[in-house]
Amino acid sequence: MRICYNFTQTFGLSGIVFLLCFLYTKINKNLFANKQEGIIITLKEIAKEAGVSISTVSRVVNKNSTSAASKEVQDRIWEIVRRTGYTPNSTARDLKKGTKSNAEPPSRSIACLFARSEDSKSDLFFSNLARSIEQEAFKHNYVLKYSFTAIDLHHPNTFHLISDNHVDGVIVLGRCDSQTLSFLKQYFKFVAYTGLNNLDAKYDQIISDGYEAGKTAMKHLMELGHTRIGYIGETKKEDRYTAYCDSLTAARISYHKEYVVNVPLSLEGGYEGAKGLLRRNSDITAIFCSNDITAIGAMKALKEAGKRIPEDISIISIDDIDTAQYVSPMLTTVHMPVEEMGQMAVKILIDRIKGGHKLPIKINLPFYLANRESCGICPFPHRQGK
Fold it and tell me: What is the C-alpha separation between 239 and 253, in angstroms, rounded?
């Protein structure tokens, strides 16, 4: 108070007004400078935090190069990008390349719903799918603002998250029930779905057919002479389980309920499922698992029981996550085009947001059998029965 009083006595009221105007101008000038330099500073900060060069960060986020760095480094960079809210500056890239472009519109945003997973990082297939979505969205000047799971829908904070953070659209990862669909219809104007199961809803769908992939897996086992085939995975409204049943029927092989274990698609589910099958059915020669994570858990249980893979028992699954090539023996699985599914889901959603199409679109992407080491010829063909 004494300082202000002395200043007023010395320079008068006009002096105080001048000082306030000067400080206001100075502060705004600094804020403007920071805003102008924000992208450069943010790039440097990303590189520093990730422990890589600025050029590496630039190649990853601007060119979406899969060879720019290791998978672990790319994941680290994208986590920092998401957390800091960094957005691409196409104008700067065009100036560097010597090209011209129209003024870049403001960055827009989308969200992801993990409909099948309790934890967005617990399922490698869906976490890889989400990574593909985030990177493709980034190329189109969209950011992945937040992700949530179906379980989160029952938490009050989720409603605040959605209502307080507007996004332009949402991508659903994996099959969801009618209650979840009703929720999405209420809170999101634009919705796209991607997964392995067909969705009974009038939304854009980008799928790789899990039913046909399941039939491909079963056909491979049958061609090796297996007829006593177990199933580990989910059974309710699950296309891969339907494929298991239909394949047995088509081959005139009897269905045995004791060959089927209904478990969550997880390492623990596969481990416990395989132990259950072994307790009940010592004569099974092959197992079809709904996904790779479940199969890897099952392989651990089989090895602990002294079963040799594939000499004593064959195992096959669906997804072809990176880990499938690093287990021993390497897992035979049906490769699903997870990266392409994510990329196409983003493109279709953005086209819907921009009014490019009105009717629901369904795109079915191809898959293929990745034949490795975990399947072999049936060891006891004389014991096989129909």
Answer: 19
Based on the fold, state whether residues 351 and 250 are members of the same structural domain.
no
- Determine how many CB atoms are found less than 10 A away from the CB of residue 237: 11
Question: pLDDT digit string (tens) for 341-357?
Answer: 999 999 999 999 999 99
pLDDT in tens, 214-255: 999 999 999 999 999 999 999 998 999 999 999 999 999 999
The token pair at 345 is: 């889901």
Which two tokens mark 86?
Answer: 């960094």
Task: Work out the angle between the directed axes of helices 239-250 and 210-223 (0-180°, nearest 10).
Answer: 40
- Of 155, 149, 199, nearest to 170 by C-alpha is 149
Cα 356 from chain centroid?
25
Q: Is residue 181 part of a domain?
A: yes
End-to-end CA distance of the chain: 97
Q: Does 376 lie in the same domain as 283?
A: yes
Q: What is the pLDDT of residue 89?
A: 56
More confident residue, 107 or 185: 185
| Token code pair at residue 134 | 């985030």
At 298, the amino acid letter reads A
Cα separation, 14 vs 11, in Å, equals 7
Contact in structure between 188 and 161 (CB atoms under 8 Å):
no
**What CATH number corresponds to the domain at position 359?**
3.40.50.2300
Total domains in the fold of the chain: 3
User: Alpha-carbon distance 302 to 296, whole Å?
Assistant: 10
pLDDT digits (tens, 9 = 90+) for 97-122: 455 445 445 568 999 999 877 665 66
> Alpha-carbon distance 354 to 257, whole Å?
49
Q: For residues 171 and 267, what is the distance between their CA atoms, to the nearest angstrom? A: 26
The residue among 321, 315, 292, 357 whose CA lies nearest residue 127 is 321
The total of other beta-carbon atoms located within 10 Å of residue 295's CB is 30
